[in-house]
């Protein structure tokens, strides 16, 4: 994987991308769920401890771990062993009484990512919310600051808002959000929600000039997830940012196996060996 606008890249950005994507494609372990989703996602006792999540990331050799600032600070002893991605903004799953439209609020500063030796920042933009003006202004400011600091920029480009309604995972809106992100703000990577079928998500990949990471989403069977990721890689996907399909496994050992299987698909493009790892 290469950065866009190579003539303006800093040494820091190139170095951080090599750390995050040494093999070109990327497997990011997502654990921003404590803020975004709450306790409902933590179906097994072991997975609500960030230290366990870090151990899975390390032992499965996943390319990075994304979390909010409290998580990254708690895991600072893993610096140098894990590539951290600081999630700069967030929201809870409960509606804001002052806003009828979704908005993700900044809860950390870009400089915190540098202080915590993160390789990248993650930032959510809701592209069809009635609060889009505020979201766009904040996105532009954060991305400019992250670029100046030499950080890799990953945009959670999510269709949300009353205009989208229940079509938040439709190819029409996911594609629109990804191209708005790529042409409007120019992040290095875009995380997009899965559109329900590999064929429809291929259109998202094809439509975006910037590499697309597919979100893992809700837990499905291990085999189905591996097959989905394998097909998406064949269609030109850059990798995945995946959480629940790893850490909602019954045990840490199972989570490590699943993490290794995912990397086998993303990095080695070997579905059969990936499936064998789960036996």
Give an overview in words.
The protein is of the alpha/beta class. It has one domain (6-277): TIM Barrel (Alpha-Beta Barrel). The chain is 42% helix and 15% strand. It has twelve helices and ten strands. The chain has helices at residues 11-20, 33-36, 50-59, 69-74, 110-115, 132-148, 171-184, 198-207, 222-234, 244-247, 252-268, 271-277, and strands spanning 26-30, 64-67, 84-87, 89-90, 105-106, 120-126, 152-158, 189-192, 212-215, 239-242. Strands 1-2-3-6-7-8-9-10 form an eight-stranded parallel beta barrel, surrounded by five helices. A two-stranded antiparallel ribbon has the order 4-5. α7 packs parallel to α8 (198-207), α9 packs parallel to α11 (252-268) and α11 (252-268) runs antiparallel to α12 (271-277). The radius of gyration is 17 Å and the shape is globular. The mean pLDDT is 94.
Search tags:
alpha/beta; two-stranded antiparallel ribbon; single chain; 12 helices; TIM Barrel; 279 residues
CATH superfamily: Aldolase class I
Percent of residues in helices: 40-55%
Ends distance: 32 Å
Mean pLDDT: 94
> What structural class is derived from the secondary structure elements?
alpha/beta
Radius of gyration: 17 Å
Number of strands: 10
Q: Architecture, CATH level 2? A: Alpha-Beta Barrel
Order of helices and strands: HEHHEHEEEHEHEHEHEHEHHH
Largest sheet: 8 strands, parallel, barrel
CATH topology: TIM Barrel
Strand content: 15-25%
Total number of domains: 1
Low-confidence stretches: none
What spatial order of strands do you see in the largest sheet?
A: 1-2-3-6-7-8-9-10
Gross geometry = globular
State the helix count: 12
């Amino acid at each position: 994987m290469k950065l866009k606008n190579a003539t303006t890249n800093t040494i820091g950005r190139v170095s951080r991308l090599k750390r995050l994507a040494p093999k070109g494609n990327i497997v990011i372990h997502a654990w921003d769920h404590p803020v975004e989703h709450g306790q409902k996602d933590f179906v097994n006792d072991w997975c609500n401890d960030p230290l366990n999540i870090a151990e899975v990331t390390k032992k499965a050799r996943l390319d990075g771990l994304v979390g909010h600032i409290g998580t990254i600070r708690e895991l600072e002893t893993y610096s140098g062993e894990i590539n951290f991605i600081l999630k700069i903004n967030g929201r809870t799953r409960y509606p804001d009484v002052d806003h009828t439209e979704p908005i993700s609020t900044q809860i950390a500063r870009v400089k915190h990512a540098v202080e915590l030796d993160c390789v990248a920042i993650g930032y959510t933009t809701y592209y069809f919310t009635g609060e889009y003006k505020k979201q766009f202004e904040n996105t532009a400011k954060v991305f400019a600051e992250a670029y100046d600091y030499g950080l890799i920029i990953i945009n959670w480009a999510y269709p949300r808002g009353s205009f989208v309604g229940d079509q938040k995972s439709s190819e029409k809106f996911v594609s629109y959000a990804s191209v708005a992100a790529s042409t409007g703000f120019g992040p290095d990577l875009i995380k997009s929600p899965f559109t329900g079928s590999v064929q429809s998500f291929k259109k998202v990949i094809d439509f975006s000039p910037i590499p697309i990471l597919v979100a893992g989403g809700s837990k499905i069977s291990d085999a189905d997830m591996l097959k989905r990721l394998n097909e998406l890689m064949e269609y030109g996907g850059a990798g995945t940012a995946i959480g629940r399909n790893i850490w909602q496994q019954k045990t840490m050992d199972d989570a490590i196996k699943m993490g290794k299987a995912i990397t086998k698909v993303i990095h080695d493009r070997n579905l059969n060996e990936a499936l064998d790892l789960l036996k």
